[in-house]
Each structure stands twice: as structure tokens, then as C-alpha cells.
Predict the structure of Acyl-CoA dehydrogenase family protein.
Amino acid sequence: MSVMGSTAMHFDEEQSMLLDYARSFCADRGGLDAAREHLEAPLEYSPAVWEEIVAMGWTGIGLPEELGGAGLGIGAAVPVAESLGKSLMGTPLLSTLLAAQLLLRADGEASAETLRAIAAGEAACVAELESEDWNALPSSTVVDASGLLQGQKRLVMDAQSARWVVVVALVGGEPGLAVVDAESLSAEAVSPRVLIDNTHRAADITFDGVKPVLLVSGAGVLDALRDYRLLGALLVAAESTGAAAACLDVTVDYLKTRKQFGKLIGSYQALKHPSVEILNMMDSARSFVYHASSLVGADALAKDQEVACRMAKAQATEALKFAGDRAVQFHGGMGFTWDCDAQLFIRRAQGAQQQFGDAQHHRQRLAALLLDD
């Protein structure tokens, strides 16, 4: 199958049912009021909502049944991520799904016990970044000769909520994974970071002689790490597509009610045309996202899957950024205030743009993939 000719997109009955239920659940439990309720709270989500998510089995969507998962494959998480984005729900679900995929793809047999715990509802996250470079490998975070983890990771998403932290570190001089029980970390080890998007949370973690519960090393780690980054880009793209849809709804509602000089501002072409552009960008992003979800599976991601994931991330985050920017502008001076809901979307857009590489990062790599042959 050639990259340029890859147009696969399928949506089976199970995924359709999951999408319908996820939309209904997230609309009932999330939304702008719920998001604002948790902006200044220690957690960006309700523990009761997380318990419901666990009860529905969403933490095991991408895991096989023998590890306690649903056996649906990671592509089935896309409609859930989109629904979470549309409701601006900031739970640790995406971090948990991605941590599970990293362990599963690196060495699922060795990680079986941890994966069963994740499928049962124990949140997880991946501690990867030591700099702003999403292509960088670990250099200062190491497992020393005594088997203790040393070093620091930056901007670890959902670090405050996770029971399991999957740390990308040097193991025996080569990139590996060290699984840390968060309960073994001291309170001082986790330093919350202030993000522009407060519907998500992150922290820096200092590992000063922590004993990992599991070490995974070998040739499979690099391939698993590459897949993890691409799948992360895909799930953030799905979440961003949902947020763009919600942003458009908020913007159009405002255009249909706000009057200026005796006329609804939605009647002006200068505001109609950008609104249509938001819709077109969002629909394009959704097509890219569901195309990618149709391609990804349990096997290592090949060239077509990589192209699809990178295209989805570049398009979806650009769509959300444009939607958030126009929402602020259309609301006028009020749009620049904290009380205006447009702020939630432009902040989510800025945060999503940086996760797993921005649009420029992915387009640079797409150029090599598509044009070097």
C-alpha cells in the first residue's frame, strides 16, 4: 500500500457504539461549567468521574483481553479522545492509555502485572522529556549500577494523578524504561508546573535514588518509543478536533445572539467566512484522525501509519488554534478576559500544539517521508 494512495477509513459497529456513548457521557459529566469548576482545584477532574471511566473499562481499551483489557485496539480510543476534547474534560485517561501502549509494545510479557493494574483503573503516565526536543533520547536520566533511578524529567503530563510512572531512561547505557510506583516518590520529588491550559496538569519529577519496580530494555524499546510518540500525536489530535468542534459551537452561538448597530454580528460576512473556515479545518482534521485510527493496530507502526498520525496532529492542532484565535477576536474586548469561555479554547490550543511536537515539527518529518522517495 503506497503512502499517497492510502485512503482507508473504517468505522465498525463497536466503535460507533463507543462514540455514541462517549459523547453522551462526556456531555453529561463535562462541558464548560465543569471545566471552570476545576480550573483552580488541585485536580482538573472529579475523582467520581474517573471512577466511572474506570468502571466503563476505558483504561483498558487498547490492551488485549489476556491483560484485562477490552481488546479493541488503540484505534478505538480515538472517539473517546474526541469526546473528551469536545467536553474539555481533563482526565488522566490519555496519559494512561499511552503509558500502557509504551509498555505493551516494548515488552508486554515483562510488563504484564503493571498492565493489568492499569487496565483495572490505576492511572499511569510517561516521564520522557529532558528538553523541548520531542526527538531526543534520554541523556541525564539513568539507572545506576545499584539499580536506582537518578535524574529529572520535565513537564510530565498527569504526574500528580498517576500511580505508575513509566520513565524513559538509560538502562545499561542504552535507552530503556523504568517503571516507578508513584507512592515511592517523596512529596518534594513532584513539582507542579503552571500550564497555559489549566484543564490539563503537568509536573517536573526528580528521581533521586528511587528503586524501579520494573526495568525494560532491549532493541524493542526504541521502536516502542517511536510508536508511543506517534500514537500520542494521534490521540492529542483527536482531542483537539473535539475541542475545535466545541469552540465552533460556542462561537456560532455568540454570533447568533450578539447585536451591534442593531444587527446580529453573525450577519456580517467578515465573521461568516472565518466561521466556515473553522468548520472546514475541523472536518479535515476529523478525516485525518479517523483515517489514522483505521490504520493503527497492535503491530509496529509502518510508514503509512506514521504519515497518517503526523498529518492528523498537524491539521487538528492548527484547526483548534485558528478556532480559538477567532473565538477570542469575535468576542471583542470581552474575549481577552478570563471570564470569557473563548479563553478556555485558545489556551487548550496552545497547550495541545506543543504536546508531541507542533505542526512544524510534524510537517518537517512529513516532507522527508513523502518527498524523499
Remarks:
- Residues 220-255 form the longest helix (36 residues).
- The domain at 221-371 is CATH 1.20.140.10 (Butyryl-CoA Dehydrogenase, subunit A; domain 3).
- The first strand starts at residue 124 and ends at 127.
